Amino acid sequence: MSVSRTERLLNLLIALLNTRYGLRRSELREKVYHDASGNDVAFGRMFERDKNDLRAMGFDVETLTDTGWSEDDPATTRYRIGKESNRLPDVQLAPEEWTVLLLASQLWERAALGAAAQSALRKIQASGQLADVELPAGVQPRIKPAGQAFDDIVTAMHARHPVSFTYLAGSTGKEEERVVEPWGLGSRFGQWYLMGKDRIRNAPRHFRLSRFTSAVTVLSKDQYAPPADFSIRAALDRLPELPLRATVVDVRKGRLLALRSRAGAAATQVPGGPPADGFDRLVLEYRDPEVLAEELASYGPDALVVDPEDLAAAVRRRLRAAAAFSAAPIPAYTFVDVHARAARKRTSEDQLKRMLQLVPFLVHNQGLHIQDVAKHFGITREELEADLQILICSGLPEGYPDDLLDIQWEDGHVFISQDLDLKRPVRFTVEEACALLTGLETLNGLPDLPGGGALESVTLKLLAAAGEEGLQAASIAGPQVAPADADTHATIRQAIETRSQLRLTYLSPQRDAVTIRDVDPLRLYSLDNTWYFEAWCHSVSGLRNFRLDRVQEVHPNGAPAGRHATPGGGVPAKLFTPNDDDTTVIIQLTRQGRGLADDYYAERTAELPDGGLVAEIRFGSTAWLPMFVAQHGGTARILAPAELAAAASEWLAASLATYDG
User: Fold this and answer.
1) Predicted confidence (pLDDT) per residue in 326-337, tens digit
2) Which among 177, 263, 374, 492 is least surrounded, fewest beta carbons within 10 Å?
3) How would you write 425-445 as a 3-class SS string?
4) Counting Cβ atoms within 10 Å, is residue 325 exposed (0-12), middle (13-18) or buried (19+)?
């Protein structure tokens, strides 16, 4: 879609919004399209496309006909859009409600719902002033969706398209092609599940996203209708938890302290004889073989599954897939800056949607600096000025000065005096309603949530504003985000509030060591139900992130926290803090694994023809990267530096030799 089409659609929208009687096609052709070509067929096609685009954005384009005449007669057919068509009702929020809403909007770590949540928040801000609120340091939960499959299924589900994918069946251990009508997505037992109708079996089924062995294909030419009474949360509540099982694993002596901490009594009688020299035999309990196989694969030659065979097979499958991917030819690629890539992805449809948020935002926020406006919308100043140039040339069909949008920016401050009835934002899309309402529901049970009853009140206000789109929010259910260790969470949060230093006994799986550190805690945050805290670590004189479930002991050491330490990055917090001595690593990702580029904050990326991605990522420590490649089982490999790629290949070869031996 070209810029000229953006301007044309905007002018068409303004014309149809500002006519009471309706405009005939000939009037629109002359005054909006300025088309004198005489080609009625070409114009008719263009006009129908534009009407469909406006309807796809939720505007109700009415068709009016004179009494006794057919709608097929262009001379007697008129078009208009009602003043209330697609308008978001005013949502007035108290400061504590704004706090809760900001928490909900920032829940989505990445993925399409993350962008949708920010878009919805801008629409609410566009209809009024954002209260001056500060997020509490100990309440910053986030949801991490399950990779690219999550985005693809959400898109298909809201458009009512079936999807197909290859699935590793838990009951048979075989890969099978599935065609599914997606009814809902939700998190249960620490895993994401797809609920829907399996067309091959002609029955409702649930599917674990971690068992997908191929990318998701959206069958965009097909449609379906979900059951009217379906509830994803009710379906998740009926899911049985997998039974508890035991596995026997041989572990290299002195290694894998985190795994050893979970082990039970050593096995005495196991087929295959005693462990090899230099290994200890451990017994571990688990529920899902795929989850444990991912972890055990990352340990490479330091761990060997002795029993049961299905778990050992799952580990071998991951290692072989990783080895095969690492040995594949290196594709041709050209890096693009991540921010430039995002800018190029924007279409004219995106630009028009942004303009319809921009006008009401300027109406309610007169005189903001142009740089602040651009930052609010997540675009560059140049992109914003391009939007404004289109807006000031757009207006009613006659095009007189009073018929145009009137926007000025003086000394960098933006003012609007003529809004042509665009002063209210358009209503939420399904994705926007889902992102905010699912986020609010996920906050239930979070400790120390601010505002008392603010969560319930803001949820009711958004449900009323979302209308029918809000009803589809029941198709997504987020995970529980309450911390598992409430005492540790409370200790760290109190230290943050009182600016106290903590003494920490911490288990680091990457270093395979337990260390004692003095830290100045700065903030708490989470990914799903895994909580972290960011702190200034005096042992390394820098910012570090620590997982709460790896904290073995923590208590105040009596010293105050230093004033030199401030949280890094902004909100939400990042798991990785870049340093000048980081190593730049080139990693190739399949379409299934491309979400890792966002997880590790890739600085440059290159798209591949098969939907995969090459990413340039900075790592503070590279010794664990072979574990990273093995863990992701054929969806990630190292391209450069060459010595790291070779180390990963050697790690995989040694791991497979352990199992083959």
Assistant:
1) 999 999 999 876
2) 177
3) CECCCHHHHHHHHHHHHHCCC
4) buried
